[in-house]
Write a structure and sequence with these properties.
Two copies of one chain form a homodimer.
Chain A: H1 2-9, H2 15-34, H3 37-48, H4 56-72, E1 76-88, E2 94-100, E3 103-109, E4 111-113, E5 125-132, H5 135-140, E6 149-152, H6 163-182, E7 188-192, E8 218-221, H7 223-235, E9 238-243, E10 247-261, E11 266-276, H8 286-305, E12 312-319, H9 327-338, E13 342-348, E14 356-362, H10 365-372, H11 375-378, E15 385-388, H12 396-402, E16 405-411, H13 416-419, H14 432-452
Helix pairs in contact in A: 2-14, 3-8, 4-8, 8-14, 9-12
Amino acid sequence: MKKLLIFFCLPLFSKAQVNDSLFIRKMADELLTNGRAYEWLRQLTKQIGGRLAGSPQFEKAVKWGEAVMKEAGADNVTLQECMMPNWNRGGRDAATIITIDGKKSNRSLDVLALGNSLGTNGNPVTAEVITVADYTELEAKKDLLKGKIVYYNYKFNPRNIDPSISYAEAGQYRRSGASRAAKYGAVGVIIRSLTEATDNNPHTGGMTYNDSFPKIPAVAVGGDDADYLWSLGKKSSFTISMTTSGKFLPDAKGYNVIGELKGSVNADTYITIGGHLDSWDVNEGAHDDGAGVVHTLEILRTLKALGYQPKHSIRFVLFANEENGLRGGTKYAEEAKAKNEKHLFALESDEGGFTPRGFGFTMNTTQLKKVQSWMPLLAPYGTGILRMGGGGADIGPLNRNLGTALGGFLPDAQRYFDVHHARSDIFENVHKRELLLGALNMAALVYLVDQYGL
Amino acid sequence: MKKLLIFFCLPLFSKAQVNDSLFIRKMADELLTNGRAYEWLRQLTKQIGGRLAGSPQFEKAVKWGEAVMKEAGADNVTLQECMMPNWNRGGRDAATIITIDGKKSNRSLDVLALGNSLGTNGNPVTAEVITVADYTELEAKKDLLKGKIVYYNYKFNPRNIDPSISYAEAGQYRRSGASRAAKYGAVGVIIRSLTEATDNNPHTGGMTYNDSFPKIPAVAVGGDDADYLWSLGKKSSFTISMTTSGKFLPDAKGYNVIGELKGSVNADTYITIGGHLDSWDVNEGAHDDGAGVVHTLEILRTLKALGYQPKHSIRFVLFANEENGLRGGTKYAEEAKAKNEKHLFALESDEGGFTPRGFGFTMNTTQLKKVQSWMPLLAPYGTGILRMGGGGADIGPLNRNLGTALGGFLPDAQRYFDVHHARSDIFENVHKRELLLGALNMAALVYLVDQYGL
């Protein structure tokens, strides 16, 4: 029926579009029949696992990425060195409610320290808890916070159709909640995880301290514990004892893994496709961003398997250290600028390996119109959205430094924040065909940009 | 950002469209904040479970559906009686490889008898196995089949972007494979399950016998066992012993559960929304079709919660016996015809509770154009497809008997056939927000049809 559709549409297409349509269909056949992305993801998640910048697993992932980049058929593979922050969780994070209304309690919470947060030096921090819904309530209660632990209950707004908007709204509590509370003398913070998941997994993720205030410990709790703390705070006073062990080791050497297909016409102009190789330490980094890594490798493999000769040079990049430093993406753009490289387009996959919905772009409106004219070629494979707004953290510096046009792959977003930065971001939660279809839609877009420019 | 989008778009909308846009946004807020669909699905799947026509669980489901229809706010609730076939699995299905190349084996396969297939009367059927890829190979081997068990290895075509096309292609082996083999003297059949799932769950589903040939037992195997049988057949001769216990009991009384919201302008013209209440016996019928049941109930609840007065009468129907008889849908259309009712539109949800992609329609092109003009109102909630072709098994008779225009909800299809008719179709594999968003997109479409007709 899909094949019929293509031929049915032929009269509406120009000859070039017919050729494009047939080539994209060939990519689909190759990718859906011989695709390696799912098996590569199994290797990355099950044989290496969590791979935070600075960890031995990250080093293993670099070696793995280099080998698979060659297996996939890159003309050449290089490692681009960068120094990365080296935060280490240091041990098991713990928090226990030890009194409720003055009576002894022993209810433990399932917590994860936020990334980059500093530990309690082996001594638990014990204090009464002040619960607040948001920063407005924090400010209203600022005189009560000295010596206390603050619990932020800020919830994902369920009315947003796109949960990434809820994530953007709630993110400030993870990133800045500790210092905002420390400013008023708080000694620790607990946040409701940035998720609407119906389980109790806590979600870690990057935070930063404001150097003007004490660097207090910060942890996240999952949905059930969050609901419990919030209702407990409504009726009782309670005390929590929390222990974390986060610390920074000296910066570590890391690498962007870069594979290249040499351009046959404009070899000095680059198209970049990438995802990030690092992940948080508490999971397998399957959706975040194992999916982006294997999308990138699969597009390379597919183009090569079909003997495609790109007009422009295409770089396939596994970026180092997106999660807690962005040093890989920063380095890539710095070097591009230093070498005065021409970068036509960069495309990132860092929103999971779910079923494809489309792409968001950071480019001018003329460029966007051109991309939107390709909709009939992309729609049969799942793309329904080609909109302004989007890109990715790792390719952002290319846009800021060189003005490069950006695209961000948009898989369906409903399930992403269920697993994002949580223990549940594992291989088993990635669906083989959804993963392959993501690579396919990205490959088709890259092919069209390579053929027609922007 | 979504809210901003609406106001940004206002100048492009007529006044009526602005009102429509605001009302649909109100439905979204109500549904995503107070939606009951997920909890209702938990009740239906966990408190009742599998509910094949004729089973005590189906009777319980009718009582439950009647109660929830009232809870959701129907003006009146009726039970529409119909007689249903009453197939019973009768016990545990089993198949074991007992010899390989004449040597004893004891490898058991995980099998499920196909629905409506007849059992082996307590005596295992034991025979050598002939493996075939498809009917072409079956015909080529027809002289070898007497007294043998046939294994059909027909695989889902991974190149179809939409797996429901693969399902349509492969379905003939489940439906007719037994009689096609019995015609040449085969004594049993095993089929590869209709799925591309990466697990070993067998998938049951309806089959029918051709009365001209012996009614031989028929079972399905999951992916791993299927791969094993196929490769074994390439190099060895082997014998399988299979036991099934399927039988038909006397037809059972069943009911369509029908809730109604009375129309305020055209009360004698009906819009029907429905899903089917029955499921296979081996799972919880969560996606198939618990999702369609709770979509239907949730749309009713949401319209009622907002005090919506429909112009047309809207019927919310939980159909009896879709899986192995279609007696509920048939009865509904028969009675509509007998009473000379006017039916404007019928919408079915029977493809799972996954993230919404759009709708397929059986209507004339003028009607389809009108529906497609509503795309800007539906797209913010996930709808990207409004295409010709679609409807649903239960509402099909309305179209055939009365010419009623049909719509079928199209959730993302990639995961559906992983769980369809398998033990894995359970509550845990349904995602809360995806389920609610499906109800929302259906509710918005129904609202627009009610407001503007077709």
